[in-house]
Every structure is written in C-alpha cells, then in structure tokens.
Fold:
Amino acid sequence: MTAETGIVQLEDVGLQYGSGPEVLHDVSLSLETGSFHFLTGASGAGKTSLLRLLYLALRPTRGTVRLFDRDVSRLGRKQRPPLRRRIGVVSQEFGLISHLTAAENVALPLRIAKAGAGEIRENVTDLLRWVGLGRELDELPAALSDGQKQRVAVARAVIASPDLLIADEPTGNVDENVAMRLIHLMEELNKVGTTVVVATHDESLVGRFGHPAYVLDGGELVRAGPLEGMRGERVEA
Structure:
C-alpha cells in the first residue's frame, strides 16, 4: 500500500457524452487513503459515470481528477496501465473472460503481479470458497448464474489487495446473505489499507454499515456523512 493522504481528488469535474447534456456537474471530493465510502442515488443519477472516471475508463469534460497524487485528467493511453493495475474494479457487466474458468479469471491480477503458481492456486481457491463458489472453480462464465458471475468479479477485484477498489452495484445480483458477505469482504480489505468506493441503489444496505455515503442527485454530489438526512446538501469545493 502507498502513503498518499488523498488517494482520490476531484475538483469541479463535469462530464458529458458527445454533444449531450452534462451527466455530472461541478463534482468535487477528496477521499483519504484507507477510507470506505458508499455512493448512492437514483438510477440515472450518474453513479456509474463517476466510477468510470475513478478507474480511468473516462476522462472528464472539464475539471481535474487526481489519483495517487497524479493528475490523470488527460493521461495518454500508454500512461494508464501502471495506475490501473493499482485499482480493483467490479463493474455491472462483470467483465469476465469467457474462455477462462472462474478460478482462472480470479487469478488474472496475481498472474499480472507475477505471483507464484502455488500462491495463486491457494489464494484463489480459498477466496472462491469463501464467497460460496468452491464447487465452481473450473466452470466457464457461460455456466454460471449472474449472481455467481458477480461473486467471481468481486473475488477477482480484491484478490491482489489493490490500493483502490471501485465496485459498481456489487450486490445487485445476489441475495441478502451473500450481499452482506461481499460487503464484509470489502471491509476486511479496507482494514489492511485499501480505499473502497461502493456504488449501490440499496439504501437499506448502506444503512446497515457505519461508512459515510455520498449521494448523487441529477449529477450533483451531496456531502458525505450518515445517509439519513443528507438529501439536498451540496458539496462545496
């Protein structure tokens, strides 16, 4: 883990797709290293767009995005991979590689980090068993349900203990018990230094945990804090 105090910093960020209207307006926030935040809001509020900025899938239309003490707002394609390797991502599309088994998908970050074969096998097996997929190690994604794919995607995102974990609706396809287990897994990762941002529309889930939440409303961000009573409070830069 690294020693940045502001691992994520956004200043007056706006985002629009093509010539359409802005989907994010004047978003400013700073996340300390080792913090855990939820991001919530209605469907279409801009949660996924904001997360895509954080894992370098998009560039802001205006404003500044800093990750790991570096301005990434205009990074070239060749400059992104070293930073992206420090970020674990759980997307709503799962992003699993179709010709690799569940275990092989989860092992990818460790292989990129050049971990040993024994370490990879042990860690991957233990983690997939922990998320309830001990019998699906050798299954291809096509043979898995959406809920199982979700758990594989979460396992892959956390297996290498990234500096920053970005999770977009990671509990959207699983039952309540599995959802709680996945959030607890992210909390364990957070305890050893990973900064965690979890987007969810499930306010009841957010309310069960003591982590601050940002709320997006029409592309505008309200102040982080306890979810109850936060509506309508704009974040000031």
